[in-house]
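Q&A FORM
Asked by: J.P.
Topic: structure of 4-diphosphocytidyl-2-C-methyl-D-erythritol kinase

PROVIDED:
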Amino acid sequence: MLTLPAPAKINLFLHITGQRDNGYHELQTVFALLDYGDRLHFKPAGTLTLSCDQADVPRDDSNLVLRAAALLQQHTGCRRGAAIRLEKRLPMGGGVGGGSSDAATALLGLDALWDLNLPIPTLAQLGLELGADVPVFVHGHSAWAEGVGEHLTPVSLPDAHFLVIHPGIHVSTARIFGDRQLTRDTPISKLPASLEAVLTDSFHNDCEAVATRHFPVIGELLDWLRQYAGNARMTGTGACCFARLTGAQQGQQLLQQLPQHWTGFVARSRNTSPLHEALAKFRATKNSG
Ligand SMILES: C[C@](O)(CO)[C@H](O)COP(=O)(O)OP(=O)(O)OC[C@H]1O[C@@H](n2ccc(N)nc2=O)[C@H](O)[C@@H]1O
Ligand SMILES: Nc1ncnc2c1ncn2[C@@H]1O[C@H](COP(=O)(O)OP(=O)(O)OP(=O)(O)O)[C@@H](O)[C@H]1O
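REPLIED BY: S.T.
REPLY: Here is the structure written out as tokens.
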């Protein structure tokens, strides 16, 4: 049995700098990986199956975990199976990359379980076919990202705690990117010098205004967070918003005061993904045994 984490990400800012002919958006962002997320359990088996502890998670071929597994089989010709159990903790359509991270953990986990040993760039390329956010989880570093999110430069972020709040709604990424009022002309920025710099006003999330118009509760959530932390912001295309904290304790206090119907978690940013740390341990145990 192999158990691996699928960590969340937050976009510390998200600038939309253009749009490609195929409709996809050019963007600039910093992905901060977090030490909180889903978990996947893998058991060798004759066929591929997926179970999940939450009723609203799709279990059919549309689940990104099964799509990742099928893509890996197709790419390598491998016909081995696995019984995969998904422990879902991240909100869906929350902008914290849950489905994308599950897909990346499936790619790397099955690569290890099936002894495929594909290079990381190959797995990231396969991941990109599943979604723009998958490559950062495959590479496993907090990163400065450009292009549609696939040109990644690892960054070293200072240790920071974040409060991430989900206002209980599901935001469709395609709906936000498809909105005609989305600002698509933010000037190209240079890689900022520090985390503090990207949490200041000149950096922002271009999707915030559109998402707030579609879902006023996101505006209410930002106002609520800003009473306690000036740097509150939305992640991705929403619905989650986050604020940098003075420490874990402040986050626990704020969680106690959350309005009804909102849920949240406190997490630390991680420069190296917990997934890659867990895989390194798995490989070390395997090689020593
Ligand atoms: C907003 C971010 O979360 C920032 O990290 C990502 O750019 C979104 O990544 P994702 O959820 O993996 O998105 P995908 O599943 O690839 O795309 C969902 C839809 O969003 C739109 N989309 C996505 C990424 C992008 N750079 N431009 C887009 O226009 C496309 O209409 C696409 O059909
Ligand atoms: N394993 C999975 N976990 C979550 N959602 C999944 C999964 N597989 C497929 N999906 C589908 O993907 C949709 C978006 O899920 P996800 O949680 O990744 O959104 P998100 O957090 O907004 O992503 P991003 O931050 O990458 O835009 C869900 O509505 C769901 O139907």
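FOLLOW-UP: The beta strands are 2-19, 25-45, 48-52, 81-87, 143-146, 151-154, 161-166, 233-234, 241-244, 263-270.
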